[in-house]
C-alpha cells in the first residue's frame, strides 16, 4: 500500500504540472471520437470530470447529441460502491459525493451495461497493461468487476506508466487513450 500511496502522490503532481491541459483534453477526446470502440458503442458510461482529470464534458455532449445512451456514476451510501444512471441532459446532474456532479437519482433511471456499452474510466495513471491508479476507494475496481462491455481509460501521456503497483482486487481497462494514441491494453507481462 505504501508503493501505491507514493505513486498516487507522484501522479497527482504530474497531472497538476500538465501544460496546456485544455489542448491535451481536446487531443484525447478527438482520439476517442475517432475510435471504433466509441463509434460502435450504443451506450457510453462516462465519469463526470473534476479537478485535474481529463475533461469529459465534450464526451458527454457528443454522446448525447449522437443518439447514444449516456450514463454517469452515482456513489451510493455504501462505501466504495457506485452505480450508473442514464441521463438525457447535463441539466440532470447535481452536486454529489466528494463535490463531483452526479445524476439526480430522483429523476434518472438506473443503467445496466451490455456488450455494446463503453465505460470511460478516470485515473491518476494507467500502466500499459491497463491497470489503473485511482484515489484508493475501489469504486471503479468494484464496478469493472461486474461490467459487461468495453472499458477505456483516459489519461495524459505523462500518466502512462510501464508498471503500476496492483493487487488481486485491481481491475484492468481494455483500452488506453492519451494525446498520442488509443490502443488495446497489453497482455500481462
From TrEMBL:
What does the record give as the reaction this protein catalyses? (6S)-5-formyl-5,6,7,8-tetrahydrofolate + ATP = (6R)-5,10-methenyltetrahydrofolate + ADP + phosphate
Recite the UniProt keywords alphabetically: ATP-binding, Ligase, Magnesium, Metal-binding, Nucleotide-binding
Q: Where do the annotations place ATP binding?
A: 4-8, 132-140
Enzyme class at the top of the EC tree: ligase
The UniProt record gives the binding positions of substrate as 48, 53
Q: Which cofactor does it need?
A: Mg(2+)
Keyword Transferase tagged? no
Pfam families named among the record's database cross-references: 5-FTHF_cyc-lig
Spell out the molecular function terms from Gene Ontology.
5-formyltetrahydrofolate cyclo-ligase activity; ATP binding; metal ion binding
Q: Which domain of life is it from?
A: Bacteria
An example GO BP is: folic acid-containing compound biosynthetic process
| Assigned EC number | 6.3.3.2
Does the record carry Cytoplasm as a key word? no
Residues of the signal peptide: none
By sequence similarity, the record places it as follows: Belongs to the 5-formyltetrahydrofolate cyclo-ligase family.
Q: What name is this protein filed under?
A: 5-formyltetrahydrofolate cyclo-ligase
